[in-house]
Specification:
mainly alpha
C-alpha cells in the first residue's frame, strides 16, 4: 500500500484542531445542514486520527532537540538525565504538590460545606501523598525498598476500607452539595492529569522489576481512580440534580468498584512483598 505524501499528512494535522472546533460548534449551534455536518464530522475524525498518530513523533523530536541543547550547556540538566534518584524525585514533585493542593481543597470544602465526604477525600489524598514521600525516601536507601513496598500495600488496603465507608456516605446523601462551576472544571482538569499520569506510569513500569516503581505506579492508579469517582460525584451533583436516585446508584456502583480495585492492589502488594521477603531469606540462608 502506497504511503500518503508528507505534505498531506502535515496538512491534516494542521486542520485537525480547526475541524474539531468546528465540529463542536456545529453540535451546539447546528449552523450546517445535516449532509454537510456529516462530511465535516468525517473529515475531522480522519484528521484527528492522523494528528494523534503523528503528534507523539513530533513531540519526541522536539524534546530530544531541546534536551540535547540544554544538556550540552548546563551540568544540572545532564545530571538530571544520568542520575536515576534525582530524576525520580524531580518527576514526582508536580504530582505530589498537586496532591497536597487537592487534599487541601477537599479539606476546605469539607469544613465549608460540613461534608464528611470531602473530609474523607482530604484524608485519602493526604495518605497517598505521604506514601509518595516514603517512596522518594526509599530511593535514597535501597535497603528499605521491600519494607516500604509492603507498607504501601498495607496502607492501600486500609484506604480501600476507608473508601468503602466514604461510599456509604455517598449512598446516604452526604455528597449532596452542588459546587460552583469553576470547581467542577478544576476537578476535571486534575482528574485528566491524574489519569494521564497513571497510564504513563503503567507503561513505564510495565517491564520494571523495581518494587518502588511498582508501588509508585499503584499509588498513581489509586489516585486516578479516586479522582474519577470525585469527578463523577461533582458532575452528577452539578448537572443531574433532578434525578437523585440515578446519581446515588451510579456513585454507589463506581465507588464499590474503585474500593475493590484499591483493595486488590493493596493485597497483591502485601503478598508480593511477603514472597520477595521469603525468597531473600532463603537466598541468605544458603
Amino acid at each position: 500500500m502506497k504511503k500518503l505524501p508528507p505534505w498531506l499528512l502535515n496538512t491534516a494535522c494542521i486542520l485537525a484542531p480547526i475541524l474539531s472546533g468546528l465540529s463542536l460548534y456545529q453540535t451546539v449551534r447546528l449552523f450546517l445542514p445535516l449532509p454537510a455536518a456529516f462530511v465535516l464530522y468525517g473529515i475531522a475524525f480522519v484528521c484527528l486520527i492522523i494528528f494523534c498518530i503523528r503528534m507523539p513523533k513530533w513531540l519526541v523530536g522536539i524534546f530530544r532537540r531541546v534536551t540535547g541543547y540544554f544538556r550540552e550547556r548546563f551540568h544540572g540538566v545532564e545530571l538530571f538525565f544520568t542520575n536515576r534518584v534525582l530524576r525520580k524525585i524531580v518527576i514526582a514533585i508536580p504530582g505530589t504538590v498537586l496532591g497536597v493542593i487537592y487534599a487541601g481543597l477537599n479539606a476546605f470544602l469539607g469544613i465549608w460545606y460540613g461534608s464528611a465526604w470531602n473530609g474523607t477525600l482530604a484524608g485519602y489524598f493526604l495518605v497517598l501523598t505521604g506514601l509518595r514521600f516514603l517512596i522518594l525516601h526509599a530511593y535514597r536507601k535501597r535497603n528499605m525498598e521491600l519494607r516500604i513496598y509492603r507498607t504501601c500495600g498495607m496502607l492501600l488496603s486500609v484506604l480501600s476500607i476507608t473508601l468503602g465507608g466514604a461510599v456509604i456516605l455517598l449512598l446516604h446523601g452526604s455528597s449532596g452539595k452542588t459546587y460552583p462551576g469553576f470547581l467542577v472544571y478544576a476537578m476535571a482538569a486534575y482528574t485528566f492529569y491524574k489519569v494521564y499520569a497513571s497510564i504513563r506510569g503503567m507503561v513505564t513500569a510495565r517491564y520494571q522489576e523495581s518494587l518502588l516503581l511498582i508501588a509508585q505506579r499503584n499509588i498513581g492508579h489509586a489516585d486516578a481512580l479516586m479522582s474519577l469517582l470525585c469527578l463523577q460525584t461533582g458532575l452528577l451533583n452539578a448537572f443531574n440534580g433532578k434525578n437523585a436516585d440515578f446519581a446515588m446508584r451510579m456513585n454507589g456502583v463506581t465507588g464499590g468498584i474503585v474500593s475493590l480495585i484499591v483493595l486488590a492492589m493493596g493485597i497483591r502488594m502485601i503478598l508480593m512483598g511477603r514472597r520477595r521477603m521469603n525468597d531473600d531469606s532463603n537466598t541468605y540462608s544458603r
